[in-house]
């Protein structure tokens, strides 16, 4: 993970030019699973804020360069890792993780932290690459080749991990780009 953070610090100036846009439809579908109004939303591993800017979220990311890019977009930012969120228990209505979960050092801890900061009825929305697809397998290999410590999941594996974190897992979209949500009880 430290290698990934260092790479994103270097990659930050060109990140938005090389990455695809956040899928606003997938984000909105995931957010619609919340059982409460979504007023306070954070994007964990939010990088330059490409998804946060679509839904008005605060960006949390450990890479200084990415946080600076998000701040340059006028977004509220916090430099933090997914495994140790500097947020109070039950303080947010939604946690977004867009194309970042595979970079987290400790997936179980990240989900536990997301569950901790969610208010009852709040939702974690994870948009990720499904490694069971052909494109997903190629992307996973490519990230390994460039030195990332990425760990990709299938929709079923991600749903099971969300359930273990004490959230009610609900798959929203399947395929290369999958969306799985977890609703806080």
N-C termini distance: 30 Å
Helix content: 25-40%
Radius of gyration: 15 Å
Strand order of the largest sheet: 3-2-1-4-5-7-6
- Under CATH, the homologous superfamily reads Vaccinia Virus protein VP39
Q: Beta-strand level of the residues, as a percent range?
A: 15-25%
Task: Give the helix/strand layout.
Elements (H helix, E strand, L loop, with lengths): L1 H10 L3 H4 L5 H8 L9 E4 L7 H4 L2 E4 L2 H9 L4 E3 L12 E7 L8 H11 E12 L4 H12 L9 H10 L2 E7 L3 E8 L1
Parallel strand pairs: 1-2, 1-4, 2-3, 4-5
Antiparallel strand pairs: 5-7, 6-7
Describe the structure.
The protein has helices spanning 2-11, 15-18, 24-31, 52-55, 64-72, 107-117, 134-145, 155-164; strands at 41-44, 58-61, 77-79, 92-98, 118-129, 167-173, 177-184. It is globular and about 40 Å long. The protein has 185 residues and is of the alpha/beta class. Strands 3-2-1-4-5-7-6 form a seven-stranded mixed beta sheet, with helices on both faces. It has a single domain (2-184), classed as 3-Layer(aba) Sandwich (Rossmann fold), CATH 3.40.50.150. 37% of the residues lie in helices and 24% in strands. The longest helix is centred in the last third of the chain and has 12 residues, at 134-145.
Concise summary:
By secondary structure, the chain is an alpha/beta fold.
Keywords:
alpha/beta, single chain, 24% strand, 8 helices, 185 residues, Rossmann fold
């Amino acid at each position: 993970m430290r290698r990934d953070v260092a790479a994103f610090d270097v990659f930050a100036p060109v990140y938005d030019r090389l990455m695809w846009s956040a899928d606003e439809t997938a984000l909105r579908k995931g957010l619609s699973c919340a059982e409460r109004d979504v007023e306070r939303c954070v994007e964990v591993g939010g990088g330059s804020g490409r998804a946060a800017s679509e839904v008005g979220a605060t960006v949390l990311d450990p890479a200084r360069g990415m946080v600076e890019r998000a701040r340059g977009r006028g977004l509220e930012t916090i430099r933090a890792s997914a495994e140790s969120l500097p947020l109070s228990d039950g303080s947010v209505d939604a946690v977004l993780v867009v194309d970042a979960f595979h970079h987290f050092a400790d997936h179980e801890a990240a989900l536990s932290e997301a569950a901790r900061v969610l208010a009852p009825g709040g939702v974690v929305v994870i948009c990720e690459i499904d490694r069971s697809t052909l494109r997903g397998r190629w992307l996973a290999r490519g990230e390994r080749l460039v030195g990332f410590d990425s760990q990709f999941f299938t929709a079923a594996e991600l749903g099971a991990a969300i359930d273990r974190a004490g959230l009610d897992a609900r798959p929203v979209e399947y395929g290369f780009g999958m969306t799985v949500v977890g609703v806080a009880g």
